[in-house]
Amino acid sequence: MLATLRIQNFALIDHVVLEFKNGYTTLTGETGSGKSILLGALNLILGERADFSVIGPASDKAVVEAEFELANFHLETFFQSNDIDSVNPTIIRREINNQGRSRAFINDSPVQLGILKELTEKLVHIHSQHNTLELRKPDFQIELLDTLSSLDTLRQGYTLKFKFWNTERKNLIQLKDKLALSLKQSDYNRFQLEELEELHLEKYNYHDLEVELTRNENVDGLKSTLDAIVSSIENEEGASGTLRKLKSLLERSKGVDVVLDELSNRIQSTLIELQDISSDAENYLEKIEIDPHRLSELTLLLDQYNRVLRKHNLLNQDQLVELKNNLSADLDDTGDLQSLIELKTEEVKLLKNSIDKLAEELHSKRVSSAKQSEDAIKLLLKDLKMPDTQFIFDFVKRDELNNHGCTDVKMLFSPNKGMQPISIEKAASGGELSRLMLALQNLVSSKKQLPTIIFDEIDTGVSGEVAQKIGALLKKMGSNLQLLAITHLPQVAGKADYHFKVEKSLTDNRTQTNVRVLNQDERIEEIARLMSGEEINEAALLNAKALMN
How many Cα atoms occupy the beta-carbon half-sphere of 31 within 13 Å? Predict the structure, then answer.
């Protein structure tokens, strides 16, 4: 419910604060008094694009702020998903300045216009003779039928399932595309994996093989070195012979000097170490052989290893092992992907069967319940002085499902006797569309909670008894929802629970628009003015009282 509307420095309005209540409220005023300014300000709250020419002269910006009571609107998900504080009442504000900037706020959190619209379209609907065009929209027509037929819950359940199926179907297509790409790559990946497997990376240490190849390629040099070691130690003039002579010399002085005894022991230890070195060198020399077959095998293995390293621009065996594991995992993923696609295909098929059944159920219930809704609409239109109205929901069953099921609905309408019903956009005049919209909104308001509805001179083109019927219908609707009507008709204004008057005045040599709530006596006078003009007589006042009662 719209609780408060504050307008500051907007067009001819310097500052206005309007407090609204539930029920039926009317706004009246002379032509040009500024009723359209109020709607323009409210449209800013509804997320319409800003017209910066409406900024008044009092400051460099215009501000419009609305306070809404949100009880029973169930908007918690909206606030959570947009990370906005959820409070009741909720305050929505638009600011526009003369630098061409526009800002929007919900509970003091800055938001984009799209988010503002998402919220306010759930809170306020403005209807005028010009925007009854929504009657012609297919989505509006089928949702209207579902509401009148109490099928909203069933359709919403179907729509959720349909959207989930559509998402899963698109996911399945993406998986199949991914598999096709994976299969395209898999042959090449398998070739690379086989090439790596031929290296037996888990069996060989290629660093050790490189060391072995280097040793085999240098056997002659190794033998020469080992020969030199043995000769240098074992020859008569070699290290061992020299140390033995020293040892023999020191033996003569054994026991004479402790230092010499120590040196003798150290020479003995060195002799033993040299003999071990010589023995190891001799043993290794006996084992070293040139194996042409092994040399060829090592060369082949390392050539292949280095070629693969260069091919993949890698540096060592660890990186090749990592590549091999990744290729193997990719091939495994292809198999897993095929299994996932099979599973997902079955899930999508089951979902499709489920929504097919729901769509069939919706279609059947729509067709069977349409007559009752048609009769209710015609009865209301008869009361609004359209007794010869024909109104039909025309059905076509779709082959392809959409958000609403397998049903296409077109509202066919004829306001005159003897004329075949045709699509509503071709059959109805503006005044007839207005009365049809009133009838439909009245029926819908009895079925579900509606947001605040504002009728902007939707009664244009009617008078007399029809105007009285419209006023009575608006009052009835006001018992179920908050309803505001801008009107020039005393019959419509007289049925309201609350009454605002829009006035224009000259202050400080400047025209200003003001809005005030009328008390009972002021209401009688204003309705009398609507009936007789500025010259209000006693008869007009009596008629005004009669209208109000």
Answer: 2
Number of domains in the chain: 2
Task: List 436's β-bridge partners, or say none.
Answer: none
The CATH number linked to 3 is: 3.40.50.300
Question: Can you spell out the DSSP letters for 523-534?
Answer: HHHHHHHHHH-S
In this structure, the answer to whether residues 237 and 119 fall within a common structural domain is no
Please check whether residues 323 and 228 belong to one and the same domain.
yes
Asked if residues 58 and 531 have their Cβ atoms less than 8 Å apart, the reply is no
Last residue of a domain, one of 335, 366, 389: 335
323 and 199 share one domain: yes
pTM over 0.70: no
Question: What is the reported pLDDT for 103?
Answer: 93
203 shares a domain with 117: no
55 lies in a domain? yes
Q: How confident is the model at residue 281 (pLDDT cuts 50, 70, 90)?
A: confident
Q: Does residue 40 contact residue 84 with C-beta atoms inside 8 Å?
A: no
Helical H runs in 62-137? 76-81, 113-120
Name the average pLDDT for the chain: 85
Give the closest residue to 179 by CA, choosing from 31, 69, 294, 337.
337
DSSP 8-state assignment for residue 134: G
pLDDT tens readout for residues 89-114:
999 999 999 888 999 999 999 999 99
Residue 295 near residue 206 (C-beta atoms within 8 A)? no
- Show the domain range for 71: 1-123+451-518
Note whether 90 and 215 are same-domain residues: no
- Exposure letters 394-403 (e unless 16+ CB within 10 A, then b): eeeeeeebbe
Element (H, E) at 128: strand 124-128
Checking 173-176 for CB contacts under 8 A at 24+ apart, the result is: 175/337, 175/340, 175/341, 175/344, 176/341
Strands 452-456 and 422-423: unpaired
**Helices marked H in 46-103 — which ranges?**
76-81
In a domain? residue 364: no
Residue 266 lies in a domain: yes
Q: Do the domain assignments include residue 525? A: no
Q: Are residues 462 and 321 in the same domain?
A: no
Per the CB < 8 A criterion, the answer to whether 384 and 470 are in contact is: yes
- Three-class SS state of 118: helix
